[in-house]
Amino acid sequence: MRAAVVIALKDLRRALRDRSALGVAVVAPLALAFVLSTVLGGGDLDALEVRLAFVDQDGGEQAEVFRREALGAVEEQGFLRVTDVASQEGRRLVAEDRVAAAIFLPPGFTENVTAGRNASIDVLASPQGAIGVDVARAVAEAYAARVDAVRLAVATIAFVEREPPDVDAVTAAALRPAVRLAAHTAGSREFEGNTFFAAGMTVFFLFFTAQFGAISLLRERREGTLARLLASPASRRAVLGGKGLYSYALGALSMATMVLATRVLMGSRWGDPAGVAIVIAAGVFAAMGIQSMVASLAKTDEQAAGYGSIVGVTLGLLGGTFFPLSQAPGLLSRLNAFTPHALMMRAFGELSGGLGGPADVIPEASLLILTGAAFGAIALLRADRLVGP
Amino acid sequence: MTRRSQVVLEARGLRKSYGSRVAVDGVSFEIAPGETYGLLGPNGAGKTTTISMICGLLQPDAGEALVLGRRVSTDATEAKEAIGYVPQDIAIYPDLSARENLLFFGRLYGLDRRTIERRSKEVLELTGLSERAEDRTSTYSGGMKRRLNIGIALLHEPQLLVLDEPTVGVDPQSRNAILASVETLSRGGLAVLYTTHYMEEAERLCDRVGIIDGGQIKAEGARRDLVAMLGEKDRVRLAADGDLGVLAARLADSPHVSEAIAGDGSVECIVDDARVALPSLLASAAQVVAVTGVEVVEPDLEAVFLRLTGKTLRD
């Protein structure tokens, strides 16, 4: 054990001097997480404000209800600012990109809704509107869905009670806020704000740092120092153990640094520290096992780095570290479920909302440890060709 | 003290095959304290495979290596503690300084911090690297790296130093420094196993030489013993002004001379031992001619190797 620690400390010292290692372990994931959360919005809804224009060409009761109940409710949540304008003004604001979208209720809207005829809501979107367009569309679609529901409810009530229902009361009751852009407050089991990108990049780059131990074994062979290690009193197990310890320490150090750095610099919310520590411990083990096995297929350290990168990028994309894939259709979703990246992201998601604790991530952590053990065992068997007598 | 207790390294019937190719086939030899033993042979003769089995890098198919009576195969830790291994290629960490390299290997060999500091200082002085001790070794010249490569092997004060062709690709100045270091260490009581395909190095350094080819030791002994074993004789060539026929006839009657042949401007004498015969030869020659030059040609290990294997060391 002592020899393994000596070897691991030596490798860590070399890694700290190697700027490219530091870059992969900390700088690149931090920079990419920051860029992605900035460019893609990061879901930091505290800072989000969507501007919409509302054009009431109908002037009727249903238009007023839509404005007050559907748009107004979202407006109250502080994410939406709605400007009531005339038709031409609405088009101009969109054209000048001063609002994300304009919602038009055409003449006869109330009459059509009340009569149960088709009524349309037009959304004019700005090409630059991004999330604001989605908000406008979601509000309109939700309202339309509720209107359909009301009609259905009215019909049902009339059949059972044999009395004409209070259409206005039922409609008002149905028109609760159609869209919730709630910032994921305590109680939510989803990623908090930009934490998705912080976690995604941390997990993505973990699979690059986790291969350093196996690569360094091949590098020692190329540099001739492996023979010197094996000629020393250190056992072969100690040499392999030292490389494993180095990989594990570097991976854990990288992840811990990322958690702290994104928390301080980006305000990411990772959740329960003990839970995060468990996910890191299990995730690094899985990454180390997989990448060691991959490296054991290589003949040179350069080849191992190439193989490891291919595996890291592929699993990273399938695992949803850049964008969520759990809801993707068919094969993608199934592949996503099998990646260690997805397991880690799911576990971090559990914790990020603030409700999840250590017990909630035990299933994912257990699967990660099993994965690491299975691949690590293959890697150890294959490593014999490097260090075997 | 028994003979066995004086043996630092004992190789017994070492054998190693790779598939159908036999790399080492029953190699046996011993090395005593203060003795330098050379394994002389061309590339591919089995030198490095033999060393690898002795240092525990390879498991022999048969036979065993014992260091201070400890089996390398079963008592690896104890046996390896007694070995200082110098690989053929430079095996140091380029992004660490010489002192950091020594610190790492000192810890690996289980030395305490105080011992590492003391030995590092001594090794750095021995290798002439004290002034560059804190510099990364990637900035060193090839010769400096070679010296550190040997220095690391000496750090833990081994009783057996194993050098695998340490002068391959080394400039003459550095080579001479390495050879001088090995001579000094051997005089200090260190047992040395030295592999080379340079006949001159084996002749200069080694008390005994094992001539290895095709994985087998073809002959073993001190240089003169090997030469004598093959019946090779020394040649003394005397250049002279005067009647060379008379000179040749006179020298042929000398006690140490088996044959004397007059040639173009010189007489060549075949003698058993040039160092013994030379004084009387010069005295006899001076009586009949004016000697203008003397050249002694002793049969070397190259000749022995050629006789034993039918090929040269460079083959």
What are its keywords?
heterodimer; A: 389 residues; four-stranded mixed sheet; 16 helices; 4 strands; B: 315 residues; alpha/beta; six-stranded mixed sheet; four-stranded antiparallel sheet; elongated
Short structural description:
The complex is a heterodimer of chains A (389) and B (315). In chain A, 67% of the residues lie in helices and 5% in strands. With 389 residues, chain A is mainly α.
Present the secondary structure layout.
The complex is a heterodimer of chains A (389) and B (315).
Chain A: H1 2-17, H2 19-39, E1 50-56, H3 61-76, E2 80-84, H4 87-95, E3 101-105, H5 109-115, E4 122-125, H6 131-161, H7 167-174, H8 195-209, H9 212-223, H10 225-231, H11 236-266, H12 273-295, H13 301-318, H14 330-337, H15 340-352, H16 362-387
Parallel strand pairs in A: 1-2, 1-3
Antiparallel strand pairs in A: 3-4
Chain B: E1 9-18, E2 21-31, E3 36-40, H1 47-54, E4 62-67, E5 70-71, H2 76-81, E6 83-86, H3 98-108, H4 113-126, H5 142-154, E7 160-164, H6 172-187, E8 191-196, H7 199-205, E9 208-213, E10 216-221, H8 223-229, E11 234-241, H9 244-252, E12 257-262, E13 266-271, H10 274-286, E14 290-297, H11 301-309
Parallel strand pairs in B: 3-8, 3-9, 6-7, 7-8
Antiparallel strand pairs in B: 1-2, 1-4, 4-5, 9-10, 11-13, 11-14, 12-13
What does this 3D model show about the protein?
The complex is a heterodimer of chains A (389) and B (315). Chain A is 67% helix and 5% strand. Chain A is mostly helical and 389 residues long. Chain A has a 4-stranded mixed sheet with strand order 2-1-3-4, sandwiched between helices. In chain A, helix 11 crosses helix 12 (273-295). Mean pLDDT of chain A is 78; it is low at 42-47, 149-165 and 173-189. Chain B is α/β, with parallel strands linked by helices and 315 residues long. Helix content of chain B is 36%, strand content 28%. In chain B, strands 6-7-8-3-9-10 form a 6-stranded mixed sheet, with helices on both faces. A 4-stranded antiparallel sheet of chain B has the order 2-1-4-5. A 4-stranded antiparallel sheet of chain B has the order 12-13-11-14, covered by helices on one side. In chain B, helix 3 packs across helix 4 (113-126). The longest helix of chain B has 16 residues, at 172-187. The two termini of chain B are 43 Å apart. The A-B interface holds A 2-3, 6-7, 10, 13-14, 17-18, 223-225, 227-235, 389 and B 52, 55-59, 76-78, 80-81, 83, 85, 87-96, 100, 104-105, 107-110, 152.
